[in-house]
Structure formats: structure tokens, C-alpha cells
Amino acid sequence: MxxxxxxxxxxxxxxxxxxxxxxxxxxxxxxxxxxxxxxNTAVKKLNYRPNVIARGLRTQxxxxxxxxxxxxxxxxxxxxAKSIEEKLNEHNINLLLCNxxxxxxxxxxxxxxxxxxxxxxxIFISSGFDxxxxxxxxxxxxxxxxxxxxxxxxxYFISSENKKGGYLATKHLIENGCRxxxxxxxxxxxxxxxxxxxxxxxxxxxxxxxxxxxxIIKSKIDLKEIKEKILKIHNKIKFDGIFAGADRLAIxxxxxxxxxxxxxxxxxxxxxxxxxxxxxxxxPSITTIAQQIDKIGHKSAELIIELINNKNMGQxxxxxxxxxxxxxxxxx
Amino acid sequence: MxxxxxxxxxxxxxxxxxxxxxxxxxxxxxxxxxxxxxxNTAVKKLNYRPNVIARGLRTQxxxxxxxxxxxxxxxxxxxxAKSIEEKLNEHNINLLLCNxxxxxxxxxxxxxxxxxxxxxxxIFISSGFDxxxxxxxxxxxxxxxxxxxxxxxxxYFISSENKKGGYLATKHLIENGCRxxxxxxxxxxxxxxxxxxxxxxxxxxxxxxxxxxxxIIKSKIDLKEIKEKILKIHNKIKFDGIFAGADRLAIxxxxxxxxxxxxxxxxxxxxxxxxxxxxxxxxPSITTIAQQIDKIGHKSAELIIELINNKNMGQxxxxxxxxxxxxxxxxx
DNA sequence: CTGAAAGCGCTAACAG
DNA sequence: CTGTTAGCGCTTTCAG
Lengths: 332, 332
Known about the structure:
six-stranded mixed sheet, homodimer, Rossmann fold, 16% strand, 434 Repressor (Amino-terminal Domain), alpha/beta, six-stranded parallel sheet
């Protein structure tokens, strides 16, 4: 039975012309109720479904949005993708998901592929290579999340108050008595981490603690790598607190330090970032800075839809969502 | 500069006909090297990119594959999605990702949307509502993963040796001295969990331990829910071992039991399933049954590509990938 | 209110 | 080897 049935078949069945069918399906304006009924009956009877490819060719709209992100298995990006997709789905827009794997070259390929596919808009979490932003045509609706492109680009941007998060985390540690505070951060020069670092530095300054560059430990957000880094420095540097720029880093650190015999939080206190689901269920549970991922995701989706429907929105805006500290067992 | 340039422009620039351009771009057969050069030069000069929508309309191929899965934030599905996408990308096939959220109705919408989009094939992880499988047209290449549809459907299926996994986990606990072994399983009637349960039962039988239905604890794969379930039963049922059908369940259980004062593994030994990255870094690290997610993902992608290129492959096959036990601290 | 006709950009016979 | 032609399925003037 798999013969694809087209508008032509519906038209014949309903005894009207193709254009009338099209009219009924699209807006229903300028059509008698009677013809409407005839068409609708025929549509049902034949189980007709419009061919969106043909429609796309004609209208130059695809009802699809591309999402490029570094790694879907990172729980932050995973949740983000989910909330974006959820919202787009409400508007019958499909999501084309692309993992750049933090690789600018793959990212470039994906951008081109998505443009070729004529996506109506693009939501973009950069691999950190700003040049790829130049691939976007002027008139393509684009929303950038999380990793801020350099300032001179006129582009919509959404993220959390990362600096404030770093400040809150560090302040919490200081007020709990820590004086020698490590910061664990991504090795990449990517804005959220840098802003968290700025927050960390600002807190130290406010409490008159000297900033020491050797207290910044760089590692991929990878459990194994952070373990190796911790093993390498734990007996070279003296520290009583850790601000981990991501919960994954916090988990790797806690695990490694526990195995080395340190007590958390008695010997070393730790604050993470992101509030991934496991943070609450880790042993010990992890004090962390929560981001409102759902809000970021929904806002991104809403914004891209708005941009698609109304391309001329003038000066691009930025949006920053509040973060807050959740106190758990990894700090006193 | 954003005027979309088409094959016509290239043809004019190169001084040839549109069909010649098409020929050069597609296979290059039956064209002089000279014309080839002319065309290629024009393509480069104009920075031409083919319109895949138009091509799709004409060829009835979209070079895209749909992936429907229950929840991208579940690390098993996330990794699966990533490995599928990776492989498809090698073949220049785009992935349309859809989260059904374990909801048959959303799932149905997505199936229809993907069919409307004329995806070339579909990779499908069911929400557990088999009727949705009937929505697939006979001639659509489909690969089902993880959750096996009822046997009478002629459909390609890929998963792990779940029963064997359940057996290995339970056997390990028994050989470590456990006699009262809980099984934590998804509340859904979904095949992987049921097969793990069969493995659990088979192991008990082989070691002459009675199966007691009250030792099967059902919970969503959700940290909070499993916590509540454990709290409810821990002092009603006596147990010295737990086989958790998913690492997430294992983590929720360990955390809850630790808080209650039980020592893991001294008082209670636990084996999980999946080998998610955190299993290795949990406190204590978790003995688990590893699935070869990458292999499953790559196989699915390869299979769907094969089916797309060669629709008539006859009787549908099933593929089961080996699992193995990784010994860590949550068992002795 | 409805139908005819053109055309979105591309590919695939079919001639030559 | 290359050009002409038709048409994929739909929307959108333009007449009527």
C-alpha cells in the first residue's frame, strides 16, 4: 500500500483543483465550508500527508533548527539539548543535532551541512573557535549559548551568570575557613570557565587572599584526566578547598582525594558547578552552583523561533540567567 | 551578498548547460576533463552549494536518518546517540534526534514528523509501546535497538546479551557469598530489564537459591525514586546483595544505604549495569556489567546505511553484543 | 471563491 | 560527451 499519495490524488478524490487543496490545508481562507469539508474528507480517506520537502523547496522554509554542541554525553549539554528540543517540538519544529566533539573542523562541516539543509535557524554552542561564526550568513537566525563569542560580533547570546557563580562558590569556601583554594578549570579558553575564574579571583580579592596562579589546575572535563592532575599536584601544593568549575571535575577530584586518604569535607572542602543529577547522590553529596539549564534551553528555543518569524530584530541582545549555591556534604 | 546562487548561475558562468553541471557534481562520468574544470572553477568562484532540498525532492532521498529514543540525558542513550551520529557523519548522513520522553504519544508524533520529512531510514529505541511500530511503512529501513519488539515482527534488532549480563552479575554476588539478593529493575515491561531479570533467575536456579518475587524492586531509572523505594523496604526485607539493572539505580541505592549506615560492600554488595563513566569514580566504585555501547551504535548506523542502499535484504536479522563484568569496590 | 499555470532547484531520460 | 526537456509536490500569483 506504500504508494505515496500526493495533493493531486486528494484533489481528484475531492473533485477540486490542487490549489484549492493547498488553500484548505494552509489557511482555509477564501474557501467555502463545503469545499473545505470535501477536501478534509478526502485527506482523511486517503490518509494524505503533505510532502514537506516539496513544500520546503517552494517556501524556502524547512521548519527545522540545527543545534551544534560540543558533546551530547556531557550532562550539561544533554539537558540543554533536551529542553531545547522540547520547546521546539511544541512549535512543530524539528531539531537537527550535531556533536562537534569540541573539534572546529567537524563543527565547520556541520555548519555547512546545516546551511545546505536550509535550516531555518541555528542554535550554537561553540567549540571555542570563533572563526566558524563567520560562516553564518547575515540573514540566518542564530542564537549562541554558553560560550560567548568575542564582543564585536552582533549576535544573540544566552548563558548563566558564570562570574557570579565562581564568586559564590569561592566565597562559600572562604567563609567556611578555607584559605588555600584550588580552582579546577577546563584547559580551553572558553568563556564560561574564564568567567568562573574571574569570580574566583574577585572573591579572593574581596577577602584579601592572594591569588596564586599555581592554584589554577587545568584539565579536560574528563574524570580520568582530572584524576591524573590531582595525583600529580596533591603533595606539591597545600590546599584546604577546591572550587571545581564543573561537577564532573569535582567528582574526579573527590574520588581521587578520598583514595589518597583525605577526608571530604574535614580536610578539604569542595564546591562544584552545574548541579548535575549525580551531585546530589554522590558520596559525599556535592555542594555546587546550580545553573538553570531548562530556562536557558527554553529561552534559546523561544528566541530562535522569534528570530525566524521576525528576522529584523535589530541590535542583538544577551541574556544571563541567575545561578545559586546548593549546600551539600562536600563543604562544612 | 546573501543571494542564493543556483546551478543555473554556475552553468552560465561555466558556459555549459545545467545538466552538465549536475553531471560533474554527481559522478563526473561522461564529461571531458576540460568541461569538468570549467564547471569546478565556476563552482569555486561562485562558492556554489547544491540545494539539498531540491535534490531531495527530485531523488526522494534526503541523506538523513531519524533517531527516536526515550531520553537523551540518560547516559546510555546519550552515548548511543553519539556513536550513531559519529558513524552516520562519516557517510555524510544527518541525524534527526527525537526524545520521546518515554511517551508513546510524543513518540507517535515524532515518527510521523520524520516520515513527513522523508528520512531515508529510522533508528528506533522504543518507549515500550509496540503498536507504534505499525506506523512504519513496509519499505522504510528501520533498525530497532535495545528494546526488543514482540517476536512476530520482521524487523532488524540490535542489543546486548542482557540475560547473560543478569546472570553474570548475580553469579558474581552468589560466589561472593550473597544469598539474599535484591534485584532493582525498571518498572516498565521493557525487554532489556526483563532479560536481565531472566538472567538473575537463572543464576539463582543454578545455585539452588529460591526465587522470591518480593526481592524484585521496581523503580523508574531515577535517583530520587530508587531512594524512596530503598527507604521503604530496607528494614522489611533482609538482603546482603543487590543486582541493580542500571548503574543509576545502583548509585541511588548505594547512596541511600550508606546514609542509612550500611557498609558497602561489607554489609551489602552491589553490582550495576551499563558501566557509565561515573561508575568507576563513585565512592565506592561500582562493580558493573559493561555494555559495548559504541559497537551497538556503530552497528546500528552501518546497518541502517546498508538497508538504505539495498532495501531488499530479505529476512531481518538480530544482533547481540557481548557483555562482561567489571569488578570494582562495591563487591568483595 | 476557485482553477490554471508558473516555478522553487535539481536530476534523469532521451536525443543528438 | 552535452543539451533539451520533463517533472519531483507543493505554493502562489493571476484570471475569472
